Amino acid sequence: MRFEPLPLVALASAASAAVSASNSTTNGTTTIDEPCGVISSAVAEFYSNDSNAELNFEFLPSVANACLLSSGIDNELAADFVIEYKKYVEFLTTQAYLKDPPSDYPYPAVDILGGLDSLASKAAAGGFKSQYLLDIALNDLITSAHEGHLYTSFCSLQAISYQRPFNLASVSSDGVELPKLYLLADILNNSTQISDVVAINGQNATEVVEKEGLFQLMDPDAAYNYMTASQGRVPGSGSNIGTFEAVRYNFFPGDYTNVTFSNGTTVPFENFAYIPPGTWDTEIANGDDFTKAFCILPAQPSPTTSSASSSTATATSSSAATASATETTYPDLFPYTPVVRDPNNQVAGYFLNGSDYEDTAVLWVSSFAQEDPRFADPETITISFQNATRDFFAALRDAPSRTKLIIDLSGNGGGNTLLPDDLFKRLFPDIEPYGASRIRVPVAADIIGQTIAAVPDSLVVPTAEEIADPSTVSAQKIALYTSFFNYRQQLTTELTNFTGWSGKDGLFPPNVQKGDNFTANYRPPLNDTVWDESVDGLDVYGYPGANSETFPQPFPAENIVILTDGFCASACSIFAELLTRQAGIKTVVVGGRPQNAPMQAIGGTKGSLAQPFAQIQQLSQAVYNASEYIPSSLLELANSTLPGLNPLPLGANSATALKSWSVNGADNIPRGDDLQIPLQFVFEPANCRIFYSESTVLSPRDLWMQVADIAWKEGKCAWGGIDTVVGNNGTGVGNSTQTVPTSGSSSNSVVVSLAVLAAAVVSMLML
Ligand SMILES: *[C@@H]1O[C@H](CO)[C@@H](O)[C@H](O)[C@H]1NC(C)=O
Ligand SMILES: *[C@@H]1O[C@H](CO)[C@@H](O)[C@H](O)[C@H]1NC(C)=O
Ligand SMILES: *[C@@H]1O[C@H](CO)[C@@H](O)[C@H](O)[C@H]1NC(C)=O
Ligand SMILES: *[C@@H]1O[C@H](CO)[C@@H](O)[C@H](O)[C@H]1NC(C)=O
Ligand SMILES: *[C@@H]1O[C@H](CO)[C@@H](O)[C@H](O)[C@H]1NC(C)=O
Ligand SMILES: *[C@@H]1O[C@H](CO)[C@@H](O)[C@H](O)[C@H]1NC(C)=O
Ligand SMILES: *[C@@H]1O[C@H](CO)[C@@H](O)[C@H](O)[C@H]1NC(C)=O
Ligand SMILES: *[C@@H]1O[C@H](CO)[C@@H](O)[C@H](O)[C@H]1NC(C)=O
Ligand SMILES: *[C@@H]1O[C@H](CO)[C@@H](O)[C@H](O)[C@H]1NC(C)=O
Ligand SMILES: *[C@@H]1O[C@H](CO)[C@@H](O)[C@H](O)[C@H]1NC(C)=O
Ligand SMILES: *[C@@H]1O[C@H](CO)[C@@H](O)[C@H](O)[C@H]1NC(C)=O
Ligand SMILES: *[C@@H]1O[C@H](CO)[C@@H](O)[C@H](O)[C@H]1NC(C)=O
């Protein structure tokens, strides 16, 4: 899952606003001549004082909004942008389901490609008055997919952020009664006299938070949680700030958030807009300048003639062999004193104190890839994760009285998709993880698949000697072998090879679902060292190549329980699905909307691959350049459908932009789901649902004790109970029509390999 980072200390580093709406104010919208120019003058003045150099520049939201609304637009360029952008979005797997969702899907149906067509037509007809209005329309469209892997930072939305000056918490008296909203600061003050928040700007507070949370996560309860404070998110994001405070998606919050408490008091809080240091060009005099600065690209060479050179280095850097000796230490984001702590802030293992809990251990997995350089060394995260879990299971073998294990997945938004298999095998060495994925195959993907299939085997498949020593395989061969659209790479659901790209036993038979073309369901070759090491930088525990000692199953399933805050997504969803579907592990979920109803443990995307635009683009270019292998009947189609042959004409002028923009590139299809419904569209309630209380919202340890009581001492839940049979098929909790009996999921993130492929194919075939 992909999220804009929350501002870690935005408030602490804030300085007061220097811009005021000096002109007239009409109807809540400030009318200023050239508001963007007014901001420029104030920014220049603010940073002329050296002591402000590290601070955010803060100012009135209504001035920010006026500037954004005044942004200039070239509608013709905007139309070209949407047309090219759509070629990438074709790779989004869930379109047909979004257009026609199952009856218990909580959101309205949406036609993403059709919506893009409409926006392109409107732009072509000169229909947008500002770049900001176009970007808001695009953002509204793609966030209505509720798909954490579908992410684009549209250009005009990057300039200015909004924030409210307080954090909300949703707290129940005991974790079982329905929760109310409070200011977190009130709870921290530990006063006995605090009143709950009943209204926000005169509207029902719960409904305001619910509505504003709508576009944040896949599940509405998980989204509600994400709006409010949580200590559970600290190891993952460095902050407990909820997104009611850290306003997302450029939702304009107005100048005030007026909070009414149950004691009748109303407090008008002043919201603010902010600009981080060094990000605003003070030459901006008006809205046209704003758009030029943030959206219009400098002239660039056609990408089809430039090589994808920069990708090779990044691709090899994650190999299992690299363990950097850097001595950097990162802040300890995990609380207390863990028994084992990953220095990269991904995993920590604890033994609970107290005579009632001396049999209980906790493994907190907050991320499967902590990629924030403030908190981790991206070069070592994979190995440090494996080491920390290895060491924790060793500590458990030395402490045989610890017979119960809570696996806390709070705040885990995903990451490396082989680590879930690795950790699963440490817990259940005798179960073969079942994970099946499939890719949507638009015309462009079919062309890519056919072209790679036409490249001779000798350039693609590692020899026996190379498999024995993966370090001897050339980068080029690895790249070809591990490419997503290479039929030789993946295994069938029965763990046999595919026979080709097209055809009945091929990777693309085609598998037609809801009128859309997909590949067959495939499983990753976990036993394949070349693949594991080049794709995800590790050898999976218990498979060839992993030279770690193996041990028997450490706990019976009934002595393990999963705790989540609903944030779990992507690789975390793969892990939770394996544990629940294949090993029968029970789940407890905490938080969500104030209702005694079931809630999903996995509330983020359940897609199995975040596919960056950069890799789709490089792959397209490589394939286009490999035209001798493109079936000649498809050459013309290749020209018009492959994404990235033309540069995106707006707001994507840095390599970083395309690397961070992504689609959900693969669906997770559980075993036994004959209807092949992607898990995002299957409601899977946790066995037990509770709420945060005043103590558990601040203390993960108090929460673990409550969860231990529920799992092993008949503690109460707000909905369900540890023995509630949920069957992961929505029975009795909505009207899902799909049957989803026990099965599991896993997949691969070939994020790295496509880039290498591109570089390799370019160099191989252009020579
Ligand atoms: C509006 O603000 C601009 C910029 O501060 C200033 O130049 C202009 O005189 C103001 N107009 C009025 C009517 O106050
Ligand atoms: C103020 O805004 C409302 C709602 O957007 C609109 O109906 C009304 O006409 C506006 N009033 C003025 C004076 O602009
Ligand atoms: C809050 O106050 C209660 C008594 O009113 C006390 O038992 C508790 O330790 C306090 N908690 C904190 C975090 O200060
Ligand atoms: C009402 O409750 C709020 C929130 O707890 C508090 O800040 C405020 O002081 C209270 N007002 C009165 C008049 O007690
Ligand atoms: C919020 O309070 C401010 C300051 O008292 C006031 O100007 C504004 O109209 C209020 N907004 C709403 C929506 O009540
Ligand atoms: C606020 O809305 C929630 C959810 O719709 C509802 O349960 C609650 O009763 C409402 N509160 C008030 C004070 O109307
Ligand atoms: C992982 O553990 C091995 C063996 O103990 C050690 O050599 C290596 O440096 C560790 N790597 C990291 C990144 O912690
Ligand atoms: C599947 O293909 C791989 C090479 O891609 C080969 O090493 C392996 O032997 C094949 N397996 C079977 C069962 O044919
Ligand atoms: C699906 O793929 C087949 C085979 O390539 C093609 O003939 C058909 O037009 C495709 N259908 C759609 C809806 O793209
Ligand atoms: C992995 O397992 C599959 C299915 O059992 C087999 O076809 C393949 O040859 C194996 N690959 C390696 C590298 O052992
Ligand atoms: C691809 O299409 C563009 C127009 O979209 C055209 O200018 C170009 O010549 C075409 N290239 C090839 C190789 O057909
Ligand atoms: C769903 O799961 C429950 C519990 O495992 C089972 O009793 C029920 O038959 C299942 N329903 C369907 C439609 O498969």
TrEMBL record:
<feature type="domain" description="CPAF-like PDZ">
    <location>
        <begin position="162"/>
        <end position="276"/>
    </location>
</feature>
<protein>
    <recommendedName>
        <fullName>CPAF-like PDZ domain-containing protein</fullName>
    </recommendedName>
</protein>
<dbReference type="InterPro" id="IPR056186">
    <property type="entry name" value="PDZ_CPAF-rel"/>
</dbReference>
<dbReference type="Pfam" id="PF23658">
    <property type="entry name" value="PDZ_CPAF_rel"/>
</dbReference>
<keyword id="KW-0732">Signal</keyword>
<dbReference type="InterPro" id="IPR052766">
    <property type="entry name" value="S41A_metabolite_peptidase"/>
</dbReference>
<feature type="signal peptide">
    <location>
        <begin position="1"/>
        <end position="21"/>
    </location>
</feature>
<dbReference type="InterPro" id="IPR029045">
    <property type="entry name" value="ClpP/crotonase-like_dom_sf"/>
</dbReference>
